[in-house]
């Protein structure tokens, strides 16, 4: 992990828990912190992608809550968290007793944040800087939190997930009614009212559901 990235994260976040997940502590940035106020030009100059890792998104919170409430969902299993961000769902899976948890993200700052957050919560997570979409692995459960927010990514993601489901992999999705969430082949497992912030979302409360992919 880059010391500079770890230092940047420590300087621009505070350790906190969300109302829905008091069991998990994370390095998060509030909407008032400079990291969310930077212009695109300032981010480019700093070599900083959009800091998706600095916020606990509603879909990820719902999925993490579900895993902690229903640990048998992942207990003893090999789990992949796609686009892991701050690592919230991966940490929850590890706390729920998963046999092995991999958190994958393409953003090097997210990789640093996941490492810091896993250590903070004293769980073991295998952290990989890569895009696993379109790849195969020995995963038994693949988790997706809040990734259906833009069409090209959503189409690519759905095709890949349906292929994995056909091969017998369990697919779990946490989503607060994003525009490009698949409309067919999903079974709703739970819904949570997730406090959020109108600075980053369109309201201060999002209803986020956990879905299981049931057919292709």
Note down, in words, how this protein is organized.
- By secondary structure, the chain is α/β, with parallel strands linked by helices.
- The chain has a single domain, classed as Vaccinia Virus protein VP39 (Rossmann fold, 3-Layer(aba) Sandwich).
- The chain is built from seven helices and nine strands, in the order αββαααβαβαββαβββ.
- The chain has helices at 3-12, 34-37, 40-46, 58-69, 88-95, 108-120, 151-166; strands spanning 14-16, 26-28, 78-82, 100-105, 126-129, 141-145, 170-175, 186-195, 205-213.
- It is globular and about 45 Å long.
- It starts with a helix and ends with a strand.
List how many beta strands DSSP finds: 9
Low-confidence stretches: none
Termini separation comes to 38 Å
Residue fraction in strands: 15-25%
Mean pLDDT: 90
Count of separate DSSP helical elements:
7
Domain count, please report it: 1
Output the CATH homologous superfamily: Vaccinia Virus protein VP39
Walk across the major sheet and give the strand order. Answer: 5-4-3-6-7-9-8
Our Rg estimate from Cα atoms comes to 16 Å
The sequence of SSEs as H and E is: HEEHHHEHEHEEHEEE
Under CATH at level 1, the class stands as Alpha Beta
Tell the overall outline: globular
CATH topology: Rossmann fold
- Helical residue percent? 25-40%
Main beta sheet, described? 7 strands, mixed
Judged by helices, strands and strand pairing, the structural class is alpha/beta
CATH architecture classification name? 3-Layer(aba) Sandwich
């Amino acid at each position: 992990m880059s010391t500079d990235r770890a230092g940047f994260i420590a300087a621009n976040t505070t350790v906190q828990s969300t109302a829905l997940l008091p069991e998990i502590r994370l390095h998060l940035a509030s909407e008032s912190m400079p990291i969310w106020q930077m212009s695109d030009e300032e981010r480019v100059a700093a070599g900083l992608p959009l800091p998706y890792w600095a916020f606990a998104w509603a879909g990820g919170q719902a999925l993490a809550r579900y895993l902690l409430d229903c640990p048998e969902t992942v207990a003893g299993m090999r789990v992949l968290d796609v686009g892991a961000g701050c690592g919230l769902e991966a940490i929850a899976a590890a706390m729920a007793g998963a046999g092995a948890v991999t958190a994958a993200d393409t953003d090097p700052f997210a990789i640093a944040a996941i490492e810091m957050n896993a250590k903070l919560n004293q769980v073991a997570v295998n952290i990989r800087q890569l895009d696993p979409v379109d790849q195969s692995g020995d995963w038994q459960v693949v988790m997706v939190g809040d990734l259906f927010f833009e069409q090209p990514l959503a189409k690519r993601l759905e095709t890949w997930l349906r292929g994995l489901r056909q091969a017998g992999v369990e697919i779990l999705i946490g989503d607060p009614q994003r525009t490009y969430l698949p409309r067919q082949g999903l079974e709703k497992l739970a819904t949570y009212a997730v406090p959020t912030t109108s600075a980053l979302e369109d309201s201060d409360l999002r209803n986020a559901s956990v879905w299981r992919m049931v057919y292709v």
